[in-house]
Amino acid sequence: MRKEIQLNTDDNHIIYGTLDSNNNSTLLIFVHGFTGNKDEHHYFNAVPYFNKKKFDTFRFDFYSRNIHARSLTESCITTHSKDLRLIIDNFKDKYDELILIGHSFGPLVILSTDLSNITKIILWDPTTPFKKIEDKKATYDSNLNTYIFHWDMDFLVSKTMVDEWMSADLNYLVEKLSIPCKIIFAGKSNKHELWKPYLNKIKAQNKSVIIDGATHGFIEEGTEQKLFEETLKWIK
After folding, report:
1. Residues β-bridged to residue 120
2. What is the pLDDT of residues 53-75, one digit of tens each?
3. Do the Cβ atoms of 80 and 104 come closer than 8 Å?
4. Closest CA to 84 of 98, 64, 67
């Protein structure tokens, strides 16, 4: 059964999410990436796949057009982590197991969050911190005190978000990880190469795999299915 859920934050915002439940004992919480949303193909299509495998799913938006939702310009890793923790706290007494699955920027948020009550995490082609704003095709607007990301369309992003992203200590985040973690890389993305210095620093039980032929969004024929299959191997 599908249910739309609203959670109130302590700073007067609302988190909007979608719970698909068959009263299973394990909940998969999907954490979207930078400029993403809960209805991207790899979250939306994950629902029937994992529901059939006896998992409930919850996907949500860090920001949206909905009333009192956050906007991207007022968001940062800190607000994302607090909101994710609020979601965890909402479900922790309702399920035997909670599992986090994040794509791209989502894994950085996951690793920056208090993971109490989480059983396992899966990181889909996770991002890394960066050193030059030019690497993200972005410029700073001093009048707005925001960064403008010049992608398929222009995005206004808070200075705090960019500062936290650039200064994130991934060495520390992976070294302190204490729960099982699987990282699934896209073969045609550069993320595996960027993550190589960090993989051997993960002390918790972990595994990494590469899906050949996949770009960062796992949009090539058959790659989404392989993404789900590799995820299932870690959580079943």
Report:
1. 99
2. 999 999 999 999 999 999 999 99
3. no
4. 98
> What average pLDDT does the segment 114-140 reach?
95
Buried/exposed code over 76-104 (b: 16+ C-beta within 10 A; e: otherwise): bbebbbebbeebbeebeeebeebbbbbbb
Return the structure tokens found at 81: 């982590």
Per-domain boundaries in the chain? 2-129+168-235, 130-165
**pLDDT confidence band for 135 (50 / 70 / 90):** confident
CA angle, 180 then 182 then 187, to 5°: 170
Q: How far apart are CA 126 and CA 113, in angstroms?
A: 15
- Which CATH number is 2-129+168-235 given? 3.40.50.1820
Distance between the two ends of the chain, CA-based, in angstroms? 21
The pLDDT score that the predictor gives to residue 152 is: 87
Note the pLDDT tens digit of each residue in 148-176: 999 989 999 999 999 999 999 999 999 99
DSSP H/E element including 77: helix 77-91
Element of type H or E holding 223 = helix 223-235
Q: Please report where in the chains the tokens 């790899």 appear, as a residue.
A: 42
Task: For residue 36, give the amino acid letter.
Answer: G
Three-state SS across 146-213? EEEEECCCEEEEEHHHHHHHHHCCHHHHHHCCCCCEEEEEECCCCHHHHHHHHHCCCCCCEEEEEECC
